[in-house]
């Protein structure tokens, strides 16, 4: 009797395939497990098998001499629909196996015991089972040992997937770090050129520091997102802007207060880096051209997303009598901000308002 599909078959198959275990070569780690299971249970056959869409595939086996069989003859395809451990003392007497062509012959499979291999989401992807060509049974200790070994198989799969994910993440982070260093190097060349023209080396060093702070904030956000279980390599805007506002406020004069608002939305690191650069430059210009001792100044960052367009609005509350033509910066910082937006096909608008100064940056997400 062929087993019915698992009620969450599509999700179960997606889970199985996520481990990239199917059709891999034999490995001693799994071979040792099936040999140990056969020895403990005193059976001639032991198998680590995974139930695919149309077949059961054996990662390791003792006593079978094959790597896969069709689901029509699979006892384990029944087992994954049931409890964590299944014991069939005589397959001729069980409705699930009595008509199985592998069990019908006198020298066929007459005994089966299997423990589920279950993923972290609770879905069964296969079994560790032992079989015999004569009716048999297992005592409580043997059943427990088989269950423990099945969990050991699952831990091995989880470990391998985690190591693969870490390798991918490390390579991706290496790539991002190189890109970030390249952008910083480009900014340093521009700041150096500007400093040679103006003689203001301190301003150039401050601008480089702000660029480094922006890049550092992006990499910290990516690290935190991966630490929380996300391996997408993207940056959550809400968390990122909250952290950025806090960092800026701690580095600015005590009379400057910084707030931010952003949706729970993930963006590419390059966009987050551009947002960080613009936010840093806006804060620096606020302090340079507007903030004065004993005068409270508010800086607010507001990020919104509509369709494929992301908008960053930066505002400050610099009193009108304290503003000058310099409030619309035309220096190297402004050119870098415009370049940061332009790489995403966006635009930068700056204007003086009654309440203060406003900068609007628009990015296209794709």
N-to-C order of helices and strands: HHEEEHEEEHHEHEEHEEHEE
Shape: rod-shaped
Q: Please, how many helices?
A: 8
Helix content: 40-55%
| CATH class annotation of the largest domain | Alpha Beta
Biggest β-sheet: count, sense, barrel? Answer: 6 strands, antiparallel
Explain what the structure shows.
The protein is of the alpha+beta class and 366 residues long. It has eight helices and 13 strands. The protein has two domains: 9-160, Beta-Lactamase (2-Layer Sandwich), CATH 3.30.450.40; 200-364, Histidine kinase-like ATPase, C-terminal domain (Heat Shock Protein 90, 2-Layer Sandwich). The strands form three sheets. The chain has a six-stranded antiparallel β-sheet. A five-stranded mixed β-sheet has the order 8-10-11-13-12. Strands 7-9 form a two-stranded antiparallel sheet. It is rod-shaped, with a radius of gyration of 32 Å. The two termini are 52 Å apart. The model is unreliable at 226-231 and 321-329 (pLDDT under 50).
Q: How are the secondary structure elements laid out?
A:
Layout: H1 9-17, H2 28-41, E1 45-51, E2 55-62, E3 68-70, H3 76-79, E4 85-88, E5 111-118, E6 124-132, H4 140-198, H5 201-227, E7 235-236, H6 237-251, E8 256-261, E9 266-267, H7 269-289, E10 297-306, E11 309-316, H8 332-342, E12 347-352, E13 357-364
Parallel strand pairs: 8-10
Antiparallel strand pairs: 1-2, 1-6, 2-3, 4-5, 5-6, 7-9, 10-11, 11-13, 12-13
């Amino acid at each position: 009797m062929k087993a019915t599909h698992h009620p969450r078959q599509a999700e179960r198959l997606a889970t199985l395939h996520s481990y990239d275990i199917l059709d891999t070569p034999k490995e001693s780690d799994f071979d040792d497990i099936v040999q140990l299971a056969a020895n403990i249970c005193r059976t001639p056959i032991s198998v680590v098998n995974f139930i695919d869409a149309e077949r059961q595939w054996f990662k390791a086996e003792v006593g079978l001499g094959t790597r896969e069989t069709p689901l029509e003859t699979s006892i384990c395809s029944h087992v994954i629909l049931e409890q964590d451990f299944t014991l069939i003392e005589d397959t001729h007497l069980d409705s699930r196996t009595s008509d199985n062509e592998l069990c019908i012959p006198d020298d066929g499979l007459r005994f089966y015991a299997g423990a589920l291999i279950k993923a972290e989401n609770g879905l069964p992807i296969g079994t560790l089972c032992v079989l015999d060509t004569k009716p048999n049974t297992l005592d409580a200790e043997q059943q427990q040992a088989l269950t423990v070994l099945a969990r050991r198989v699952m831990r091995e799969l989880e470990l391998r997937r985690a190591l693969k994910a870490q390798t991918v993440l490390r390579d991706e982070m290496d790539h991002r770090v190189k890109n970030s260093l390249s952008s910083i190097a480009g900014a340093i060349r521009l700041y150096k050129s500007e400093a040679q023209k103006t003689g203001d080396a301190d301003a150039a060093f401050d601008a480089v520091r702000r660029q480094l702070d922006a890049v550092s904030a992006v990499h910290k956000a990516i690290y935190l997102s991966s630490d929380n279980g996300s391996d997408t390599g993207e940056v959550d805007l809400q968390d990122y802007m909250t952290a950025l506002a806090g960092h800026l406020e701690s580095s600015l004069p005590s009379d400057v207060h910084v707030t931010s608002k952003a949706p729970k939305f993930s963006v590419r690191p390059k966009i987050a880096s551009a947002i960080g650069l613009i936010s840093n430059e806006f804060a620096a210009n606020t302090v340079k051209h507007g903030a004065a001792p004993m005068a409270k100044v508010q800086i607010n960052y507001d990020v919104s997303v509509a369709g494929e367009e992301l908008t960053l609005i930066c505002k400050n509350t610099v009193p009108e009598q304290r503003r000058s033509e310099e409030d619309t910066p035309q220096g190297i910082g402004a050119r870098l901000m415009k370049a940061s937006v332009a790489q995403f096909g966006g635009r930068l608008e700056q204007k003086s308002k009654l309440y203060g100064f406003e900068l609007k940056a628009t990015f296209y997400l794709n």
